[in-house]
Amino acid sequence: MQILDGRKVASLILSELTNEVVLLNKKNVQPKLVIISVGENPASALYIRAKQHACKKIGILSDLLKFPENLTTEALISTIQSLNTDSSVHGIIVQLPLPKTISTPLVIRAILPKKDVDGFHAYNLGKMFLSTEFEDLAPSTPSGIVRLLEHYEITFEGKEVTVVGHSNIVGKPISVMLLNRNATVTICHIYTKDLAKHTRNAEILIVAVGKPGLITADMVRSGVIAVDVGINRLPDGSVCGDIDFLNVSKKATFITPVPGGVGPMTVACLLENVVKSAKRLNI
Ligand code: NAD
Quick one: which of 255, 260, 204, 202 has its CA closest to 231? Predict the structure, then answer.
């Protein structure tokens, strides 16, 4: 069994990005990401800190705009519109989840697609459906998964892949990206009748649910490549994924740890999108 070491691969990506930022700086371009956060959410605060820390490490400017819980959809959209036209800003992300009183689809739609470095705008998601060449500003968690597996020379063509979870930010886009790479993809979710039947069939199993211990060793085949996207905080403060790591790792050929697997790759791919956007907006 081999660990898919997200920290190691992410740091390789970040060091390449550092060089690209230096080149941009030489052209008087200072890549800048603006993170919008509404209300108080401890998990979001943690993710924002990780993103800002990584930005700082590689020379990307990051601004955090914090708003109170009672912000209106209109006020948020108006903030986004001014960032859209601000030429010093290359990437805009709205930290999700937003308070229930705010319309997330309307807010995401307000982001200029060229600055949508999270890749959640319908324009960027739609392009992804066409082929790998059109995966332009792709969502960073799915991109991170693909990049991590590619680093370990894992191929997708013809593979049986099961994705558990069908959210717009992980499950659906990773399924499309793997279809683009000619995998045979099965997508499971809360309404799937016999989850184990589908997980046992998987040569590559990707789990993005948010339920600790959901995938047990009897639910995977021997030799599985297991990718755990889940981030769950346990009452003792520790963090775990959705896969029973201890027992599934005994049957797996490759497995991602949590933490240290998909999480760091997500951050690295987000920053890659910021650099991509900064280059393009300054051609
Ligand atoms: P979500 O809540 O939007 O979606 C959860 C999905 O799981 C849904 O499709 C739902 O139908 C499915 N589901 C729920 N219970 C199930 C069950 N018993 N059996 C099968 N499917 C079930 O979540 P999300 O935003 O996609 O995030 C999923 C997990 O991944 C969370 O733990 C989140 O914190 C984590 N996450 C990690 C990263 C990262 O960088 N590592 C990035 C994004 C999300």
Answer: 260
Q: Quick check: 42 pLDDT over 90? A: no
Helix ranges restricted to H, the chain: 6-26, 42-58, 73-84, 104-110, 122-128, 140-151, 171-180, 195-200, 245-248, 262-281
Which residue's C-alpha comes closest to atom 6 of ligand 1? 165
User: Which residue's CA is minimally distant from atom 34 of ligand 1?
Assistant: 231
**pLDDT at residue 283 in the model:** 67
282 band by pLDDT with thresholds 50, 70 and 90:
confident
What is this structure's pTM? 0.97
Pocket residue to mutate for ligand 1, from 170, 199, 273, most atoms within 8 A of Cβ: 170
User: Which amino acids are annotated catalytic?
Assistant: 51, 95, 118
For residue 16, being part of any structural domain is answered with: no
Enclosing H/E stretch for 34:
strand 32-38
Region for 192 from its dihedrals, namely left if φ exceeds 0, alpha if ψ lies in -120 to 50, beta otherwise = beta
Same domain, 108 and 162: no
Total domains, the chain: 2
**Residues of the domain holding 152:** 138-263
Instruction: Find out whether the beta carbon of 165 lies less than 6 Å from any atom of ligand 1.
Output: yes
Pocket test for ligand 1, best of 4, 44, 118, 167 (most atoms within 8 A of CB): 167
Question: Distance, CA 240 to ligand 1 centroid (Å)?
Answer: 13
Instruction: Write out pLDDT tens, residues 1-20.
Output: 999 999 999 999 999 999 99
Residue 272 lies in a domain: no
- Whether pLDDT at 151 is above 90: yes
